[in-house]
Design goal:
Elements (H helix, E strand, L loop, with lengths): L11 H7 E2 L7 E4 L4 E3 L3 E3 L5 E2 L3 E3 L5 E11 L4 E8 L10 E7 L2 E7 L12 E8 L4 E9 L6 E2 L1 E6 L3
Parallel strand pairs: 1-5
Antiparallel strand pairs: 2-14, 3-7, 4-6, 6-13, 7-12, 8-11, 8-14, 9-10, 9-12
Amino acid sequence: VLDLPVLAAPSPEQKAAISIDPVKLPGIVLDDKQATLEGEWKSSRGFKPYIGTGYVHDDKRGDGHSIATFGFKAPKSGRYDLRIAYSPHETRARKVPITIESGTQKTALIFDQTRPLPAGEAFRSAGFIQLTSDAETKIVISNTGTEGFVILDAIQIIESKE
């Protein structure tokens, strides 16, 4: 009979290093599970930490068929910092297209997922966007024309103090 040692449950610090609870983060945080996904996306937990229970990626196809749409209402109109959670790596896409529609405002951004995250951060800013509270905001991330893996983990929208 082989007796296996009983392993201790991971400490809160160890769990935090694996998964970050989106509810405990400031601002509006939308996990990949909250996006409407079109096309092929593959689930993964290979790179840690991640927001929620994992993330999805487009398997490096760059065909424009993998589309993720987040919809929400801003609590008030104003300027916000759009932040993206992803696992940076040299195999990631450098030119991930992101479009934001809020009321009559439409913004297009290009996001580089090879760039490292700021030290101690789970998100990196994609840029400042203008949101209106009287209409639903749509944020669309796709793999149109990308080279490398497009990672979809979570987005965070934080009201700008400027």
